[in-house]
Design goal:
The protein is α/β, with parallel strands linked by helices. The longest helix has 51 residues. The chain is elongated.
Length: 549
């Protein structure tokens, strides 16, 4: 009489068990030496011809590792392991022909002719049974006692340990890839934000400059215009600060560390900041220093500019001092003020974004609370230590610690001319791929008495020069143009067509100091968007005094 073989039942937690199994991502993966080694050692330890790491899914048992067996999987209905995953204990079948569950199993009556089976379940930390580590023999065995069961259970825990390690490595790799994707996405966002968010501000700034000139001395419209300009400048300052911080956080700024004299940076900042201090009746003093340091001169200038601006903004009367002192292999650059001072418990907080002393109402005229956050992030990027000392009612000192160097690098900093030439009557070639910006630049330059030639690309600019528009006296070009062309390419093409080094000003929303270095190497001035009309006037005037390299 034919006896129907008993089907293996499913565990009570089958759906959760299958989810757990799939979470390890191990099914149908290639052989791995660590699992093969365990099956070899297991077979040798128990003197068995076959040892398997078996994982049971919906329809089959699949062997992650196998010793002494050629097949990679069998149907679940035939699997001894389908019974082993029903209970968290070692299952032993001394003689399969004497067991009603397996007597007519094709794996018993045919190859591989299983007579003995012992399987220890692979138990996850949340108590799901994924499969087994099992040993198989072609003859019955009655020698698999408690000690052997404990040993097999220990071997199965080794398999589970490796499965956990494998999953952890996969998760770490997946997290790394996700982080890289997120970082690339953030970088792309910052590149787009630095350019696209600045564009409308830039157009408004230039158009307001035109409007201001056309209104002349009419008092009522001028008062309204001044309020609009104040709101615009406040928005610009906030945008620039946020983008600077985000760019530093994203790691997209690559410092270029060189040896240079501190005097270079100090003199430039003195010229720039003196007028701001004079407006408040403050004395700005910069100590002469002939020290040579190793740093990125552009990023160091950004740090000191923020510290000096912060000191001027928070000092009602007295003086501001930029001093320097040598201490062994280090130079201390100190910015002192005679302002209200910072309480001890708040001296770390001032480096956080939007944290401000004495400005609970968030009055934009008192700053945005971003300058010191930019200072700390930039200093961290350069590896420079920033410290603060302050006494309430007496003033504050911020210190930047720089490594001293032996010799300066050659300076290529242009010297500002004492008198800027007028723009009226000049012909300026404007290269800008965005129509709104192109129109605003052209309109503003025309308001200064310039004749303009406008183009959307380097090719169009060269073509316009060949159409009888004549040779330009200067070029104003966006740095990022359509396609892979840059403003540097456009300026080079114009100069080649003109046969002479035409003065040029590049405008960009990218605050990476690398842009400034590229512009300097090409003998171009660089303006960061959004810039103000006076900035463009000054940049063009100075460009006429330069001889591009």
């Amino acid at each position: 009489m034919q006896i129907d073989r008993i089907e293996p039942p499913w565990p009570l937690d089958e759906l959760a068990r299958l989810d757990s199994l799939k979470s390890y991502g191990v099914l149908d993966t290639p052989a791995e030496e660590v699992f093969d080694r365990i099956t070899r050692l297991t077979a040798r330890h128990f003197d068995a011809p076959i040892a398997l790491v078996s994982l049971v899914d919906e329809t089959r048992q699949w062997f992650k590792a196998r010793f002494g067996l050629d097949i990679a999987c069998t149907g679940r209905k035939l699997a001894f392991c389908a019974y082993s995953i029903l209970e968290e204990r070692v299952m032993v079948v001394p003689d399969a022909l004497a067991d009603d569950r397996f007597a007519d199993n094709a794996l018993v009556t045919g190859p591989p002719h299983i007579r003995f089976y012992a399987g220890a379940p692979l138990v996850t930390p949340d108590r799901h049974l994924l499969g087994t580590l099992c040993v198989i023999d072609h003859k019955p065995r009655d020698d698999f006692g408690p000690d052997q069961r404990r040993d097999l259970a220990e071997f199965s825990r080794l398999v589970m340990h490796e499965l956990e390690a494998r999953r952890a490595m996969e998760e770490a790799e997946r997290a790394r890839r996700d982080a890289e994707r997120a970082d690339r996405a953030k970088t792309r966002f910052l590149a787009a934000a630095s350019h696209d968010l600045r564009q409308p501000f830039q157009a408004m700034e230039l158009l307001l400059g035109v409007l201001s000139q056309r209104l002349g001395g009419q008092p009522d419209p001028l008062e309204l215009l001044e309020r609009v300009q104040e709101a615009l400048h406040s928005g610009q300052d906030l945008l620039n600060g946020l983008l600077d911080i985000a760019t530093l956080e994203a790691g997209t700024v690559e410092p270029t560390v060189t040896a240079f004299p501190v005097r270079q940076v100090a003199e430039r900042l003195t010229r720039e900041m003196s007028a701001q201090a004079d407006l408040k009746g403050l004395r700005l003093r910069v100590m002469d220093c002939n020290a040579v340091v190793r740093s990125d001169p552009l990023l160091l200038e950004r740090i000191l500019r923020n510290l000096l601006s912060n000191a001027i903004a928070h000092t009602g009367s007295g003086k501001i001092l930029l001093g320097c002192r040598r201490r062994g292999p280090t130079l201390w650059l100190d910015v002192w003020d005679t302002g209200p001072g910072i309480p001890p418990e708040q001296q770390d907080l001032v480096f956080e974004e939007f944290y401000q002393l004495g400005n609970p109402e968030r009055n934009r005229n008192k700053g945005l609370g971003l300058g010191l956050a930019i200072v700390r992030r930039t200093a961290n990027l350069l590896g420079h230590r920033i410290t603060v000392r302050s006494e309430v009612g007496k003033g504050t000192m911020f210190r930047v610690e720089l490594p001293l160097a032996d010799a300066p690098a050659p300076s290529s900093d242009p010297v500002a001319p004492p008198d800027a030439p007028a723009l009226a009557g000049r012909t300026v070639l404007v290269i800008e791929d965005e129509e709104q910006q192109r129109g605003a630049l052209s309109m503003f330059l025309q308001s200064q008495g310039c004749r303009t030639i406008v183009a959307a690309s380097a090719e169009e600019a060269v073509a316009r020069m060949g159409e009888g528009s004549g040779l330009p006296d200067a070029v104003v070009s966006d740095f990022r143009l359509t396609g892979r062309t840059t403003g540097l390419d456009a300026v080079a093409a114009v100069r080649q067509k003109a046969g002479r080094p035409v003065p040029a000003v590049l405008v960009t929303g990218d605050t990476d100091p690398a842009r400034l270095r590229q512009a300097k190497r090409a003998g171009c001035a660089l303006l960061h968007k959004p810039f103000r009309p006076d900035d463009l006037r000054r940049a063009l005037s100075r460009a006429f005094e330069r001889t591009p390299g």
